[in-house]
Write a structure and sequence with these properties.
The complex is a heterodimer. The longest helix of chain A is centred in the middle third of the chain and has 19 residues. Chain A starts with a helix and ends in a 15-residue tail after the last strand. In chain A, the strands form 4 sheets. Chain A has a 7-stranded mixed sheet with strand order 5-4-8-9-3-10-13, with helices on both faces. In chain A, strands 1-2 form a two-stranded antiparallel ribbon. Chain A has a two-stranded antiparallel ribbon with strand order 6-7. Helices cover 30% and strands 19% of the residues of chain A. Chain A is built from 8 helices and 13 strands. Chain B is of the alpha+beta class. The chains are: A alpha/beta, B alpha+beta. At the A-B interface, helix 4, helix 5, strand 5, helix 6 and strand 12 of A face helix 14, strand 13, strand 15, strand 17 and strand 20 of B. Strand 5 of chain A pairs antiparallel with strand 13 of chain B, so a sheet runs across the interface.
Chain lengths: 256, 557
């Protein structure tokens, strides 16, 4: 009995007790929405085995126009449309609410934190110094701090840190433990944490790492005046799948 | 036991109320005087003779009330009786002096016992301990009131008003005869008569019957009186015998949720200030819990230590201040003297009273908007609302508590800036990229749980929007005008040859607002293109038709 108590205490100290609680095999069978949040795109959901896993820190990366934001908007619509709350830390302040609302995002349930991070490779010189002050560092730190606050507060079904457009140099200056710490913050909760970036950044601190590959955009119509942008061609590729009790699935390319 | 203090001057009424508050927490003010519940006070005020009976206690209480009133310069009449009606009638009659200056008359009557008989048994027990106070022994109210004229009832119109109104409302509808059939008149609009008017009318009728005093009214058979005057007659008869129509309703002072602390030494750092705010918030939490209320807005006012030569400056929004901010200011204004005050008001999304939450919110707000000088007084006032009753649905996802969300939003506001945290809201405009920020309050969403989100059939493309749009140089090809197609885009971080182009789509609006003098126009008029570059980036470029300048709105993603 004493040994069990000691073991449980140790697990609790190391925050490993909650990890066991979210192990899919140990949980009672329920709707898939209890375990994941869908993206709204069939190929992406198929690659993710249903959607972004709750209680894990996942990552979505890809170059511009690869469809990251479309996937993000679909995920936000699934979370807020189901009556849950979502939070978006928009480091570069790029989110556009108008198309999001048209695609089903309930804006009243979306907590939007607009960051100050500039996506321009700007270095602000420090007066009298030669090293210079990296202007984006402080703003990026603020964005990560805001994201950490949201994860710790809990109660959100989806928490997104959007670092797309932030220079990779600025992100790489962050200590790697940042992502581990964020991953630990969300462990065992019902929150699906998601990081958006241009390149794989967090190296999957426990969740799913999905990479969207560059693919030609889809258009409808022949002439310039009749042509309409029909969305990006999503080409998801699963980089890592560390969700407990799950097996990696092969990526699928080219969503029609 | 009820004591009534009847001020002879209307201006003394407030001071009389304060005097009554010094004796009992249960007081009621009205036109018939200030009544105080003196139950149990007789033990505290014994007579000079030392006999601590209830009667002697009442005499002592009346004497003490009269003495303290005189010490305060009040000209009052005090009466102590078992019922408020009797006490008010006697005190008012004594004050107006019309009824042979009641105190003196009663004193005389108590000496001349023959006056009390044959109907006023016990009138000899009316005790005038002093010229300004009268004590009516319990059970002798009718006897004490007997010699008063009928017109004395007008002095207690405020006590009889509700009963008279109820009696008038319950009066049966009158019938009229017409062509051999009786018709019931439809109820007409309610006629609100003042109690004074009703009493005067009834007294006039009673006097025409030959009645002079309250004893005459008390002697009438109740059934006959009711048949002629209705329930109003019975109300007056009960008042003539000193019976109360309603219990004493103590006036409750509005609860104050203002906490303040003055410091011997100024505090110039927020960390020690947090301890002070924490203590004040804990006191507030107790007061709010006792009143079953929650804070809906919190006003924090700090008195700043400035140089003696500095002008008194106000850094809040006092000119339009209302509610807590105004109260906090007035609580501090008498002590400002060459010092500045700094005020912050926080509006909370839901009533809350958790001291830790309030403290956190106040301190986060002060961190975001620090006062510019050391602080030597802190005042926190809250506007309150009834406690929150939350009924959640069985099939709805549980939302975080409003306290948690408020704290989170405040913390995020301290990190990112207040206006950059919240929920996006759409504006009723077609202006590209228009939106507004509103407070994040998911608990106030009135949307029904089964509400289906209406998705647009043709949703606009998802755009990662640059704020502000990036200036670009766009090379076009073609015959010009609308047919001029972009072939090359050069902007910061976005450049390349156009592979596919879709457009132009003309968008214009706001032209009716005109161009502000020296400022930017509220209108827009432009042609938009969605272009795919050879670098793989798809973006939206737009040309202002007035200036011909190109910008990149964002990246289609």
């Amino acid at each position: 009995m004493l040994a069990r108590t000691t073991l449980e205490s140790l697990l609790k100290d190391r925050k490993l007790d909650r990890t066991l609680a979210v192990f899919p095999a140990l949980r009672p069978a329920g709707p898939i929405e209890d375990l994941v949040i869908r993206t709204g795109h069939s190929r992406a959901d198929q690659a993710l085995e249903g959607g972004w896993p709750r209680g894990h820190f996942s990552e979505l990366s890809g170059p511009p126009s690869a469809g990251r934001t479309s996937l993000l908007v679909g995920t936000l619509a699934a979370a807020t449309g189901g009556g849950e709350l979502a939070a978006l830390v928009d480091a570069a302040d790029r989110f556009d609410p108008v198309p999001a609302a048209a695609r089903g995002v309930v804006l009243e349930r979306l907590l939007w934190v607009r960051g100050h991070v500039s996506d321009r490779q700007r270095v602000v010189p420090v007066p009298g110094g030669s090293a210079g002050h990296r202007g984006g560092d402080r703003a990026l730190t603020q964005a990560i701090r805001a994201f950490d606050l949201i994860l710790r507060a809990g109660g959100f079904a989806l928490a997104v840190l959007d670092l797309s457009g932030v220079p990779a140099r600025t992100i790489k200056r962050l200590p790697f433990t940042t992502w581990l710490r964020l991953g630990r913050s969300v462990e065992g909760s019902r929150t699906a944490a998601l990081l958006l970036a241009d390149t794989p950044t967090a190296r999957s601190a426990g969740g799913v790492s999905l990479e969207l590959q560059a693919a030609p955009a889809r258009w409808r119509g022949q002439s310039d005046q009749a042509r309409v942008f029909d969305g990006p061609s999503l080409a998801p590729r699963l980089r890592s799948f560390k969700r407990a009790g799950a097996t990696p699935a092969s990526g699928a390319a080219g969503e029609p | 036991m009820i004591a009534v203090i009847y001020p002879l001057r209307a201006a003394d009424r407030d001071e009389a109320a304060r005097l009554a508050e010094d004796f009992s927490p249960r007081i009621e003010c009205g036109a018939s005087g200030v009544a105080l519940d003196a139950s149990g006070l007789s033990r505290l005020f014994g007579s000079a003779g030392g006999s601590r009976t209830a009667m002697s206690g009442a005499e002592g209480l009346a004497r003490e009330l009269a003495r303290q009133a005189a010490a305060r310069g009040l000209d009052v009449r005090v009466c102590v009786a078992a019922t408020r009606t009797a006490a008010a009638l006697i005190a008012a009659s004594a004050a107006c002096g019309g009824t042979t200056s009641s105190a003196t008359a009663l004193k005389d009557r108590s000496r001349d016992r023959s006056l009390a008989r044959p109907h006023l048994d016990g009138a000899e027990d009316v005790v005038p301990p002093c010229a300004a106070c009268i004590v009516i022994p319990p059970g002798r109210e009718a006897a004490a009131l007997a010699p008063l004229p009928l017109t004395a009832l007008a002095a207690i119109a405020d006590l009889l008003g509700p009963a008279l109104a109820k009696a008038s409302a319950g009066a049966p509808a009158r019938r009229t005869k017409g062509q051999g059939r009786n018709y019931r008149l439809a109820p007409g609009p309610p006629i609100t008569k003042s109690p004074d008017h009703q009493i005067a009318k009834s007294v006039d009728r009673l006097e025409r019957w030959g009645l002079k005093t309250l004893a005459d009214l008390a002697r009438l058979p109740a059934s006959e009186l009711s048949a002629r005057l209705g329930d109003a007659g019975l109300v007056l008869q009960r008042a003539a015998t000193g019976q109360d129509e309603r219990p004493l309703v103590p006036a409750t002072a509005p609860p104050s949720f203002l906490q303040s602390m003055r410091l011997e030494w100024p505090v110039d750092d927020l960390q020690p200030l947090a301890f002070i705010v924490s203590g004040l918030c804990e006191s507030l939490e107790q007061a709010l819990a006792a009143a079953d209320r929650g804070a809906i807005s919190v006003t924090t006012m700090l008195r700043l230590v400035t140089n003696p030569g500095d002008d008194l400056t106000w850094r809040g929004s006092l000119p339009s201040a209302t509610g807590g901010e105004a109260r906090a200011y007035h609580a501090m204004s008498s002590r400002l003297r060459n010092k500045a005050a700094y005020a912050r008001t926080l509006a909370l999304p839901a009533p809350m009273r958790d001291a830790r939450v309030l403290r956190t919110l106040v301190m986060l707000d002060l961190e975001s908007h620090p006062p510019g000088a050391a602080v030597d007084e802190v005042v926190i006032d809250v506007d309150v609302a009834p406690g929150r009753i939350l009924q959640t649905g069985l099939f709805e996802p549980a939302l975080p508590a409003p306290e948690t969300l408020s704290t989170l939003v405040a913390r995020l506001g301290a990190v990112a800036g207040d206006p950059r945290v919240g929920a996006p809201a759409l504006l009723d405009t077609h202006r590209p990229g228009a939106f507004a920020m509103q407070s994040f309050a998911p608990h106030q969403i009135t949307r029904s749980p089964n509400h289906q989100i209406t998705k647009s059939m043709f949703p606009p493309a998802v755009l990662r929007r640059f704020r502000p749009p990036r200036a670009a140089r766009v090379r076009t090809a073609g015959p010009g005008g609308v047919a001029a197609r972009p072939v090359r885009v050069d902007a910061e971080d976005i450049r390349g040859d156009v592979v596919i182009a879709a457009g132009p789509w003309r968008s214009a609006g706001g032209w009716w607002t005109g161009r502000a003098a020296g400022g930017e126009s509220d209108g827009w008029d432009r042609d938009e293109w969605d272009v795919a570059l050879d670098t793989g980036v798809t973006c939206r470029v737009a040309q202002d038709r007035a200036t011909g300048k190109w910008v990149v709105d964002g990246v289609l993603d």
